[in-house]
Amino acid sequence: MPPQAVWSCGDDIVEAVPLHPGTGEGSLTDLPDSVGDPLGTLPIEGASVVWKDHLEELPGSEEIFDGIRRQCDRVELEIEAIARYHVVGGTSIEVEVHPESDRETAWFFLKATPFGILVLQRGELPLHAAALVPPGGDKALLVAGESGAGKSTTSAILVQRGWTLLNDDISRIVFPQGAPVVCPGFQSLKLNADSLALLGLDKDSAPRTRGFKEKYYWHVRGGRSACRVGAMVVLDDPEADPADSVRLVGMSVFQELYRQTFRPYLVVPLGCQKEHFLQLSRLAATIPCHRVSGVPRRTPSDIESMLRRIAFDPEAGSSPDRPGSAA
Q1: Engineered SS bond to 240: which of 125, 206, 265, 294, CB 3.0-4.6 Å?
Q2: pTM, whole model, 2 decimals?
Q3: How far apart are CA 44 and CA 183, in angstroms?
């Protein structure tokens, strides 16, 4: 019998589905971060990580945000007892590992704020969203949401059902010929213990991440080619009763895209506000954006069916979010 993912609601098992080939226990590797996202290798051609024994101070630098300093094209940040980082001109990230830390831990934290800064320095758009392509599809669906809304669990459900993962947490959006394209990036899903249990995965076989939260890696062999963006969904209010998705309209699309920018508070201090505004405006004008509530209260079949419908026909089947509506 093939491995299955078990989805439960309270004490009742409501659904068990076969896992997509290649997503069984063998995907829980000892060091999935080094296997799926090779340590020190950035998913950007021409960009590099440089490990340093010591990083020089930045004379004349200015603090642009709570411990983050900038000097010309260099941005410095330090994560206490982990590492110091210099993000340089959108081309490299220099790392000095703290004596009490190690490269694996420094690499884990590098893939968050330092990587987001690198993307902004390059004049590109970092969105706090996963990106997946449905079976038989040729456009990516962005899956965004606040912490706890079910983004990573939703991504894992889709992967188990044959979707191709391009990014887990930060989606790098570029605009060749004006069309939004998402580039492949880091592809190790980070799941909490409850999510692993819901997905039928063994927590004891999953290595913990190096972060401050109790999460575990699930390595996914994702896609390696850039893909046109077709639509975006924002997972909202995990405690709400399941309802039809709501399609955002007008200025609410731009506002939601701004909220889903990775580290939006750094856009102005880094001097990226003009390019960022143009990118958000272009994206808001070209892709539909939907809000979906109550994801943890839905079955995997319901989740996959709704997101598949949005991916293939993003203009249909959703209630528009009109000004003054409850949504």
Answers
A1: 294
A2: 0.85
A3: 9
- Tell me the HSE value of 75 on the side-chain side, using a 13 A CA sphere: 26
Using DSSP's 3-state secondary structure scheme, residue 202 falls into coil
- Which residue matches tokens 């896992």? 19
Give, in order, the Cα–Cα distances in Å from 167 to each of 75, 127, 152, 213, 245. Answer: 24, 10, 10, 20, 23
Q: Strand pairing of 129-133 and 140-145?
A: antiparallel
Those residues with Cβ within 8 angstroms of residue 83's Cβ, 6 or more apart along the chain or in another chain: 95, 96, 97, 98, 101, 105, 106, 109, 110
In whole angstroms, give the CA distance from residue 4 to residue 202.
12
Side chain identity at residue 42, one-letter code: L
Q: Is 233 helix (H, G, I), strand (E, B) or coil?
A: strand
pLDDT by residue (tens digit) across 90-122?
A: 999 999 999 999 999 999 999 999 999 999 999
User: What's the confidence (pLDDT) of residue 319?
Assistant: 62
Q: What DSSP designation does 212 have?
A: S
Helix or strand run (H / E) with residue 64: strand 62-65
Question: Encoding tokens for residue 303?
Answer: 């989740």
How far is residue 138's CA from residue 117's CA, in Å, rounded to a whole number?
Answer: 29
CA 321 to chain centre: 25
